[in-house]
Amino acid sequence: MTQVALFGAIIVLLAFTPFLGYIPLGFTRATIIHIPVIIGSLLIGPKKGAVLGLVFGATSFINNTMNPTVTSFVFTPFYSLGEFSGGIGSLVICFIPRILVGVVPHYVYKGVRSLSKNEKVSSAGLILAGMSGALVNTLLVMNLIFVFFRDAYAQANGVAVNAVYAFILSVIGTNGIPEAIVAAVFTLCIGKILMRKNIRDRLGV
């Protein structure tokens, strides 16, 4: 519980420090909050990682309810913009991808480690774990937006409905790819230190 509380506190600090955890881009927000969730997944396992992902989702829910952007209805059922309003799909988008951010990196890293007999921390595993955590968030969020809110998302962003998936792909390219690269770099740099056996023993993980 102490370990979860520590990582949870980092997530909350990032989330509610202006322009730090959620970086406003007008039509949406870029984020780095997935990074402590990914690190937590690697250090304390997928179950506790899922709890950290739930905290991540909760901060997104609160931010989009209390400090909305034009498309916040896709993350909270309690925000409407004219004819656009959220619903049950908003909760799915807000929480399910973020919970998986705390699960997927653990198994990606474990899978990479299983391919090698080297007991040292796997740099490739850390890089792929970081990228997978960021991409599972971006790809699931954006594709679930298409599933649940295609028409409303298109109108909110001023694009034609038949061009909305192309717009979503552009968001994935401009937000998702840089977020994945940043997550890979941070996960590698932090993980190389924290994943060492002597450090993990000191941390009790």
UniProtKB/TrEMBL annotation:
Tell me if Endoplasmic reticulum is a UniProt keyword of this record. no
Concerning InterPro entries, the annotation shows: ECF_trnsprt_substrate-spec
Which keywords does UniProt give here? Membrane, Transmembrane, Transmembrane helix
**Signal sequence annotation:** none
Per UniProt, what is one GO molecular function of this protein? transmembrane transporter activity
Please name the Pfam families in this protein's record.
ECF_trnsprt (PF12822)
Residues annotated as transmembrane = 6-28, 49-66, 86-109, 121-149, 164-190
Q: What is this protein called?
A: ECF transporter S component
Organism field: Sellimonas intestinalis
Q: What is the lineage of its organism?
A: Bacteria, Bacillati, Bacillota, Clostridia, Lachnospirales
